[in-house]
Every structure is written in C-alpha cells, then in structure tokens.
Design brief:
This protein is α/β, with parallel strands linked by helices and 317 residues long. The protein contains twelve helices and 16 strands.
Length: 317
Amino acid sequence: MLKVCAENQKRIILLKMIDKTGQAVDARLRLNLRQLEVFVATARAGSTHGAARRVARSQSAASASLAELEASLESPLFDRVGRRLVLNENGRALLPGAIALLDQATELQGLFATERLAPLRVAASLTIGEYLLPGYIARWKLECPSSLVQLMIGNTSKVIQSVVDMDVDVGFIEGPQTHADLKVQRWLEDELVIVATPSHPLAARRATHRQLADATWILREPASGTRQAADAWLLEHLGPLHVEFELGSTEAIKRLAAAGVGLACVSRHAVTTELAQGTLVELRTRLPRSRRRLAIAVRRDKRLGQSTAQFIRHCMG
C-alpha cells in the first residue's frame, strides 16, 4: 500500500507492502526501472500512447508496465480524465523520486559507455539563451567534450514551467518570477536600456519623461522576464505607454527599432553589437538605471545529476 507522509506529501514516499500476517515487507524489489520509465513518460505525455513513443515500446507494453507498477504499489497513480491520464496525489508524490532514480541509473550506465550519456537538459530565457549561454556552453564543451547539451529557449514563464515539470535539469531565468517548487540562486547582473535608431527624434537629446511616455514602444510579450522588468521600471516613472508592438523575439525588436518604428527596451547584453556598430543608440534619459539579477533555477526535490551540478558550477565560476 502506498502511503504519503501528510506533512511532506511531495517529497517522502513510503513504499511498503503489507503481507497477510500484517508485517511490513520492503517493496523495492517489486519495482523496476522499466516501470518507472513508463510512469515518468506517461506523466509527461499524458497517455500511455505518448509514453510508448518516448520509451520506444508498444502501447500495450507501456500500459502493462504501468498497470504492474500500480498493482505493486496497490494504488492508482493517475486519474483518468477523458482520454488523458493526469497524475493524482500519489503520482505527484512518486514522480520526483522516480525521476531521480532514472537519472542515477543513466549516470551509472554512462560510467561504462560514454556514448550513452544522457544529455544535459538546459532551458533558458530568450535573452540568456541567445546572448549569454552559448559562450558558457562552448567553454563547457572544451572542458567536457563528451558531454551532450540540449538547450531549450523560451520566455521566462516557459522556462520555469519546464523546470517544475522536470522536462529540463536546470533553468536560467530573468525577472521576478519564481515557483514554490524551485530553488533559485542569483547569477549575473543585467541592465535594461532604451534604444532607438540614430535618426530617431529622441536620439540626439536627453529625453524627458513626457517625451518617452508619448513615444511609440516595441516591447517583449507580457510573459517574458524582460517585459515584466521593463514594465516595473517604465510604468513606475512614465505611466501608461503607447505599446504598438509586442514581440516574442529580441532580434525582431532590434530590427524594428533600427528601422525607426519606435523605442525598444531590452537587455544591454542583447544590443552590445548594435551599439558598437552604431545601428542602434542608447537614449539618454532622466530615468534611474534599471538593474536586475539573472538567476539559475532547479527543482527543490530533484537530486542534481553530476553533469548538472558541474555545469552550474561552471556557469557560476
């Protein structure tokens, strides 16, 4: 019978079977990695059909493995909602431990077969993923040439959810967003700047608050960390803005700004090249500087693999 500790349901799982005499029997040997692999794949895919594709097995084999696991634990792990399988309380409690066991098994396998090493799964917000992490990854590959790296780039909300769902091992985020299941540590410092084409009317003068408030703006989408930081900075001092473009691409924002469409508020890291080349200029304003900390996020209850821990130390160094 699966019992979940009431005071810490998500972290502590007591896997014990009760025999006919009432004595507890250790149930670990009744579980196997294949069952846990199918369980984790089902949790991520939402169905045994999707899980079967992830683990390269037939749907019937995946369904059988999941049924065997639930039978061993004498408890269902999913609620059936239409055609989808949704983790119930027991399944949510089991998931972190199951992923940790699979990660450890992969590491052990990698000790004897380098080509089978699982990739380091990294997620990063757009600014970090496009302008900062490539250099860190390149240097990491020079130090650890056998390490495989998968980098997913999205807005901060998507990165946070990917770490929470354990689809990635570590996330690099910007902005104030966080989650109760995450442990977040401070990383690099960043600064937001306002840029425009050199021919913009405000480029040759120190712009007043009123001029900035009346200008046309090109900003990131609301779910991005850069947009949230920009809103916190600009709205506090300028009030409502005329935002005519909300884009999910910093490159597109820079191109529109360079074309004279409006003002852009982006990370200084994102416009280093353009400022040096003169295709964009940083506006002089009376606004206070806007500094923020970029951060590294991992799940609190997930054991970090050796590669993940080493990569985080590499980036922090």
